[in-house]
Amino acid sequence: MPIINTNILIIGAGPAGTSAALFLAQHGVSSTIVDKAVFPRDKICGDALSGKVVEVLNKLNVDYVEELTSHKQFLGSWGVTFVAPNGQSLRIPFKSSKTEIKKAPGFIAKRIDFDNWLFEKAKANPLIETLEGCEIRKFERITDGITAYSTNGTQITAKLIIACDGAYSTFAKDIAGLQTEPAHNCFGLRAYYKNVSGLDAQNFIELHFIKDILPGYFWIFPLPDGYANVGIGMRADKMSAQKINLKKSFERLVSEHPSIRQRFENARLQGDVKLFGLPLGSKKRKISGNNYLLCGDAAQLIDPFTGEGIGNAMMSGMYAAHQAVLCLAQSNFSENFNQQYNTALYNRLWSELLLSYRMQQLVNYPSLFNFVVHKANANALLRETISCMFEDLDMRARLKNPLFYLKLLFS
Ligand SMILES: Cc1cc2nc3c(=O)[nH]c(=O)nc-3n(C[C@H](O)[C@H](O)[C@H](O)COP(=O)(O)OP(=O)(O)OC[C@H]3O[C@@H](n4cnc5c(N)ncnc54)[C@H](O)[C@@H]3O)c2cc1C
User: Fold this and answer.
1) Which of 98-102, 204-208, 241-245, 289-293 is the least confident region?
2) Which residues contact 245 (CB under 8 A, 6 or more apart)?
3) Residue 57 near ligand 1, beta carbon < 6 Å
4) Cβ–ligand 1 contact at 54 (below 6 Å)
5) Enclosing H/E stretch for 238
């Protein structure tokens, strides 16, 4: 039975865990990272990598984004198309016309490719010990740390555990005591198709807000090699209240919805349709304690409006690495000391998460959504304003101000 002693154990080699390990290595600190899967492995996701992912990658290594740009498994994306409940669509570039851009602001890549690409960087780093096929199921507190036990008999003792084991995190439930709350949790279903017609020439991602599934949406995201990632997401409490079967709703939309159906007439489903949870960051949680920090989905950080979680997972990995460096330097792994991780991370993310939560609530009013899309299509300045919202949070804050709608009404 292998017994490992390490200062820092990272559980989960998704975007959160791998980022944490790579940022630690940047500080010259070694770590052990384990994952139950053997890479490359699939992850149920929409596969959209936002500007925040690009921002964190740039902090890791300025050459990484250049590498992605020339990688054939990564598709550059230049914007988003919103389709309002009445079917009217609004095309918004990710950056305003004021900003000069040469590279795509976002990417779309199957997670099997993105996560493997990032994990390869960790595997190549001499400061990072990686263990695959190692599922951690049990924990035991010891005097100056935590011992983690894997199902294959490996025993790892660490002074600090950075738990990055995703939406169904055993660590977050058993040690941190985090609950999954239906009003702050979403379910998403993902399918891969080939040959979906009408995909955007600039690889804009498409979000279709359909009345029956509000405040969730149906999405179509283009991928390399003629693939598209197609899915549907909805808040868990709304699903139970309306007795929605997500798979049936998905099949109905693809085969019957007036404007969506025709896009799938010649499309072929590739593999299975799969469902997974999205723990939303619409509520602050206790994301650290004695000898541990939680990151990514284990810390419930997904954007409650867009469903974007990869960027926040990587960002939390970066903040966790910074905190771990302080813990080691001061030999302090206590709950009190780790509280500064919660503060720093929420200082960075909370205003954004809260705003997205307000927007999620606004989307509950289909007529308001229809109205904004209608006005924006007729008004170049408003389209520009919405475009700027992807770059500037203050601009986004306008959307929750009633005066904004009043001005629109008379514009
Ligand atoms: C349907 C759907 C669509 C989505 N679409 C998007 C999107 O388009 N863009 C976006 O930004 N976000 C999207 N998200 C959210 C995004 O997938 C997550 O936020 C992101 O994967 C979180 O990264 P993570 O590293 O925290 O967790 P994960 O990516 O889930 O990684 C966790 C890792 O931990 C490992 N692990 C789990 N349990 C154990 C264990 N007991 N022992 C050892 N290892 C373990 C897993 O094998 C996995 O590799 C979507 C989510 C869903 C469900």
Assistant:
1) 98-102
2) none
3) no
4) no
5) helix 236-241
Give the Cα separation of 340 and 317 in Å (integer): 14
Task: Output the residue whose Cα is nearest ligand 1's atom 50.
Answer: 45
Q: How far apart are CA 364 and CA 211, in angstroms?
A: 9
State how far the Cα of 159 lies from the Cα of 168, in Å rounded to an integer: 23
How many angstroms separate the alpha carbon of residue 14 from the centre of ligand 1? 6
Give me ligand 1 centre to Cα 173, in Å.
16
Please report, rounded to a whole number, the percentage of residues in the chain having pLDDT higher than 90: 78
Task: Read off the pLDDT band of 108 (50, 70, 90).
Answer: very high
pLDDT of residue 381: 74
Alpha-carbon distance of 352 to 52, in angstroms, equals 12
Q: Which CATH number fits domain 182-279: 3.40.30.10, 3.30.9.100, 3.40.190.10, 3.40.50.2000?
A: 3.30.9.100
Candidate CATH numbers 3.40.50.1580, 3.30.565.10, 3.90.420.10, 3.50.50.60; the one for domain 3-74+107-180+282-358: 3.50.50.60
- Protein residue with its CA nearest to atom 33 in ligand 1: 12
DSSP 163-208: E---TT-HHHHHTS-PPP-GGGEEEEEEEEEE--SS--TT--EEEE
Domain segments of the chain as ranges: 3-74+107-180+282-358, 182-279
What are the residues whose beta carbons fall under 8 Å from the beta carbon of 91, sequence distance 6 or more? 79, 80, 81, 200, 204
Task: Choose one of 4, 35, 230, 318 to mutate for the ligand 1 pocket test, by most ligand atoms within 8 angstroms of C-beta.
Answer: 35
Q: Is the pTM of this model over 0.85?
A: yes
Contact 257, 230 (CB under 8 A): no
Q: 325 is written with which tokens? A: 């460096």
